[in-house]
Specification:
The protein has 83 residues and is an alpha+beta fold. It has a domain at 10-60. It is 40% helix and 19% strand. It has 2 helices and 3 strands, in the order βββαα. A 3-stranded antiparallel sheet has the order 1-2-3, with helices on one face. The radius of gyration is 22 Å and the shape is rod-shaped.
């Protein structure tokens, strides 16, 4: 009887380009909104890298949207301006 391999829990954003090779890649969306892929090596390195990329992309996109809005004005400053 043949034994089946235990299925490994692979997190979202990590994939094996060639199944069974043991070389993992990560896929994530950067602050520019585009998909990026990079080779990570083994599974533990891939998990660490994808976790590093997730929060940084989210924070950068928030900062970009704030930069496009322009400077903020306080309500008291707006009320003093002539119409």
């Amino acid at each position: 009887m043949s034994r089946k391999k235990a299925k490994i829990e692979i997190p979202r954003g990590v994939f094996e380009k060639v199944p069974g090779s043991g070389i993992y890649w990560i896929r994530f969306v950067g602050a520019d909104g585009k998909y990026h892929r990079e080779i990570a090596g083994n599974l533990s390195t891939a998990k660490a890298r994808v976790e590093d990329r997730r929060p940084r992309g989210a924070r950068a996109s928030c900062r970009r949207s704030r930069a496009r809005q322009g400077p903020r004005q306080s309500p008291s400053r707006c009320s003093r301006s002539p119409i």
